[in-house]
Design goal:
With 587 residues, this protein is α+β, with helices and mostly antiparallel strands. The N and C termini lie far apart (73 Å). The strands form 5 sheets. A 5-stranded mixed sheet has the order 5-4-3-6-9, sandwiched between helices. A 5-stranded mixed sheet has the order 15-16-13-10-18, covered by helices on one side. It contains 16 helices and 18 strands. It is globular, with a radius of gyration of 28 Å.
């Protein structure tokens, strides 16, 4: 007979299940309370960051200090609330876990930035006149930069690490509101890292590059994006800048007409010759086809000294869109028959001038006037902080590239976006790129548009990185007759008037090899090259007005399939869409 009690084994199981359920409920309550507290702390961090930005911008450093301390407390609290073993246990749960990990990583980033970046930045702010950034009467006071270099370096290192950590968060695995927050975090950290990194680079380089230890001469090459080259555009005009004790002056302006083609090419790398033959070494206009600006800058300097003699300490290349950014600060400018604003200067320089001024020689004069007017306005009439912001925006878009003839400076430049070199793949990220070069011979790229999509994953059991470029000619249907012949090239180079002919080169991760190549599903002939250990596939495509084409390249092997893959590209007049898509294996 039974006494009504459960067998010992069943009672033991019941007690165990009950205890586990109780512990689970306690754990859920624990992480819920701590999660609410962490979210509240992070909201306070975001609010404080906005207040801090406003305080620093207004020069209220006394008010900035308590805000920074409050940010640090809230960030440390959020980090503490999301780092205990219970929270980390929930982070390991399938499906739900990525959300816990993301909140923990956001809190960790906030704590690191507030601890390692905010304090040094406030030290810098107190040591530099925020109203002028040392800029006065056309000169930059170089003395403060030595004092601010170290704290800026500390802050830049912290922000760069935070940028990498933010990129590593798997936002795709989180709930939509959290994914949006991660996107905002990435944007904010990237902007801060770019700005502080640029300031740190300036603090290191400006004292010598602006003539603090002796006069310097720089060639300024202005690129025209209406005729694309790898670095942005064809060299349209060129000038010599002189820097001495922080004061910059425009010395000599020249036209590409002053640089006739050379009978014998200057030395070029094997990769450049494989992609573009010897044209960059013979024609000044084509030097910016060279993918690596370290090579391009040295070649531009050689052309200048070959024509004018003297010593060149470096080369600065800017494209026409930089004028738009700068004029948002300097205001309207008048040159030739035009009155330009920030809204219309790109249209004037890259399109309207060719219809209004048919003579190429007169066009060159107007381009020189525009460059001189913008240079003088930037040095004498702009708000220094706003000018710095405009230059930082231009640099972030790849529209400013600098090469130095001095080895130590060039080493620093080459490791930054300003150097225009092909970056190295590493644990913090893998790079692929798209280089676009016009071969129409006119100025038809004013009408071209691009979408550059990337995808990573596995195809045929191998890690795969896919790059897909859609290239479109948006010129009007009657472009052959409605556009100036200087714009269409009028068939001079074998391209029907109104059509575009473009070289589209795609390079993959270091060590990966192309596994599939096609254009609109077909496999046309291509050029191949190796660029600093990277396989390059180059298509030549011709499009009539209104036509579009899609070029796809898949890379497999070493470096392929990496989640932290960044796409670099030639700066276009209108920035291309760069979506990250799901991998659709075509190989």
């Amino acid at each position: 007979m039974s006494d009504g009690r459960l067998p010992v084994r069943r009672r033991w199981i019941g007690w165990t299940v009950g205890v586990l359920l109780s512990l689970l409920l306690i754990a859920i309550g624990w992480v819920t309370v701590r999660g609410i507290g962490a979210v509240n702390d992070l909201q306070q961090v975001a609010k404080g960051a906005t207040q801090l930005k406003e305080s620093i911008a207004s020069g209220d450093l006394d008010g900035a200090q308590p805000i920074a301390r409050s940010i640090a407390r809230n960030a440390a609290s959020a980090d503490d609330l999301t780092s205990d073993f219970v929270w980390q246990a929930f982070a390991a749960v399938p499906l739900l876990g990525p959300n816990f990990r993301a909140v923990s990583e956001i809190a960790d980033i906030a704590d690191d930035v507030s601890t390692d970046a905010l304090a040094p930045l406030l030290d810098v702010a107190s040591g530099l006149d925020l109203a002028s950034l040392g800029f006065s009467a056309g000169a930059i006071d170089l003395a403060p930069f030595a004092a601010i270099e170290q704290p800026l370096g500390t802050a830049s290192t912290a922000l760069s690490a935070a940028q990498v950590q933010a990129r590593r968060i798997d936002a795709d695995a989180t709930l939509p509101p959290l994914a949006d927050a991660i996107g905002q975090l990435r944007t904010a950290v990237t902007q801060a890292a770019t700005a502080v990194g640029s300031l740190h680079g300036a603090a290191v380089l400006l004292p010598t590059m602006l003539g603090g230890e002796g006069p310097r001469n720089y060639v300024l090459a202005m690129q025209n994006n209406a005729e694309l080259r790898s670095s942005g555009g064809i060299v349209g005009s060129i000038a010599l800048l002189h820097a001495e004790n922080g004061r910059i002056s425009l010395q000599t302006q020249a036209s590409t007409r002053d640089f006739p083609p050379l009978d014998t090419s200057l030395p070029l790398s094997e990769s450049t010759i494989a992609l573009f033959e010897d044209r960059p070494g013979r024609y000044l206009q084509n030097i910016t086809s060279i993918p690596d600006f370290a090579e391009a800058g040295e070649t531009i300097a050689a052309r200048w000294t070959g024509r004018f003699g003297g010593t060149v300490d470096g080369v600065i290349a800017v494209d026409a869109v930089v004028a738009k950014h700068l004029m948002a600060v300097t205001g309207d400018l008048t040159f030739g028959p035009f009155t330009a604003t920030a809204d219309n200067v790109t249209d004037i320089l890259l399109s309207e001038i060719y219809a209004a001024v048919p003579d190429p020689a007169v066009q060159d004069e107007i381009f020189a006037q525009a460059a001189g007017a913008l240079f003088n306005a930037a040095l004498s009439g702009g708000n220094p902080k706003a000018l710095l912001g405009a230059l930082a925006d231009s640099a972030a878009e790849g529209r400013i590239r600098i090469w130095s003839a001095h080895a130590e400076e060039e080493s620093l430049l080459a490791s930054s976006a300003l150097g225009g070199t092909i970056p190295k793949d590493g644990p913090d990220g893998t790079y692929v790129g798209v280089l676009i070069n016009d071969s129409t011979g006119g100025k038809m790229d004013f009408y071209t548009r691009a979408t550059i999509a990337s995808a990573i994953g596995t195809c045929q059991g191998l890690p795969t990185t896919q790059v897909r470029v859609t290239w479109t000619n948006t010129a009007p249907a009657d472009a052959a007759t409605s556009l100036p012949t200087y714009v269409t090239a009028d068939g001079f180079y074998g391209v029907p008037a109104g059509s575009t002919r473009t070289l589209i080169a795609i390079y993959g991760p270091t060590g990966a090899t192309p596994s599939h190549v096609d254009q609109d599903g077909k496999e046309p002939g291509v050029q191949t090259a190796v660029l600093d250990g990277r396989s390059v596939i180059q298509h030549e495509v011709t499009l009539a007005p209104g036509e579009s084409t899609t070029v796809t390249v898949e890379f497999q092997g070493t470096g392929a399939g990496e989640r932290l893959t960044e796409v670099l590209h030639t700066p276009l007049i209108e920035a291309p869409d760069t979506p990250r898509e799901a991998l659709d294996c075509t190989s």
